[in-house]
Amino acid sequence: MTKPKIGLLLGTRGAVMRAQREGAAPSAEGMLTLAERAEGAGLDSVWVGDSLVSKPRFEPVAAMAAVAARTSRVRIGTAVLLPALRHPVPLAHGLATVDVVSGGRAVIGAGVGGAFNDDQRQDWTAAGVAPESRASRFTESVRVMKRLWTEDGVNFAGRHFTLENVTLDPKPAQPGGVPLLLATHYRAGSEAQIRRAARYGDGLIGITDSPEQYAAAVEKVNAALADEGKDAAAFQRVYYLTVNVGADKRAAEAEAHDFLMNYYKVAHWGSAWGPWGAPQEIAARIREFAAAGADTVIVRFASWDQAAQWERFEQEVWPEFA
């Protein structure tokens, strides 16, 4: 088994949460410093998340541009972007611009997004999007953006979007456009995700699956890629892992629980997150997902103190994969 590439999730949500908790103004400096430190340590990539009003955070495309200005090598991604919250033409324009200013380092993990409670539904209604339309809007957005990045004079007639002779400039620096990694999970009703990822994606990104479930999802996508006549070797496979690094397992678990409760305002994730505690356990979990097919593992720290978590990770986990 080859070592996976390691990415770091930057706290675009955590920075706002911490400012609210301390009664202070949000600052981006902490996450930008972490991006610099991750690059300096040799990590492959840094990533930002997305939400609107349900989980306040820094806007992802603007955050990517800020990270691009402070780094020179790491890939800069979203884990995950919710394209259906936006119109695909200005979104494609913003992402293409980030790719140009970063020198071709953008990569977009993208998903349909949830609408399973009142807070989540408010994201969609605040943007003027019917929550029940989000899956079909997502698929159309992906199709539109890929064409705008590679074609001129694009015409498109869909259920949600209509384009007539639209040409977007600048186009991304990367030939073929910004890579799109589509959220794919192993669960009931996931066949549409599997087919969508194989047909329209440049890769997949998973979250909350166990290593066994992730391996099964990868296997299904590989079969779908064969049906589409696409090369599975060129397809990127990413997994997003939430951890808390600490010598005291109970303290690490308590902090992670408190952070995630504030992050999501619900306690429904159960064993989908973790592990919490020993660096060796976290390194072992990363290796399990690599064995399951992930070529990149993104690490998110479930902690109020992102800098302290990074120091522990850099010193005690990262050397296993450097």
What does it look like?
It is a single chain. The protein has 322 residues and is α/β, with parallel strands linked by helices. The protein has a single domain, classed as Luciferase-like domain (TIM Barrel, Alpha-Beta Barrel). Helix 4 crosses helix 6 and helix 7 packs across helix 8. The longest helix is centred in the C-terminal third of the chain and has 18 residues. The mean pLDDT is 96.
Overview in brief:
The chain is of the alpha/beta class and 322 residues long.
Any idea what the CATH superfamily is called? Luciferase-like domain
CATH class: Alpha Beta
> What is the gyration radius calculated from CA atoms?
19 Å
Q: What's the quaternary structure here?
A: single chain
Order of helices and strands: EHHEHEHEHHEEEHEHEHEHEH
Question: How far do the termini sit from each other?
Answer: 15 Å
Number of strands: 11
Offer a few descriptive terms.
322 residues; alpha/beta; TIM Barrel; eight-stranded parallel barrel; two-stranded antiparallel ribbon
Topology:
Blueprint lengths: L4 E5 L2 H11 L6 H13 L3 E4 L11 H11 L4 E7 L6 H14 L4 E5 L7 H9 L7 H17 L3 E4 L4 E5 L13 E4 L7 H10 L2 E5 L3 H18 L7 E10 L3 H16 L11 E2 L1 H13 L4 E6 L4 H11 L6
Parallel strand pairs: 1-2, 1-11, 2-3, 3-4, 4-7, 7-8, 8-9, 9-10, 9-11
Antiparallel strand pairs: 5-6
Helix pairs in contact: 2-11, 3-4, 4-6, 7-8
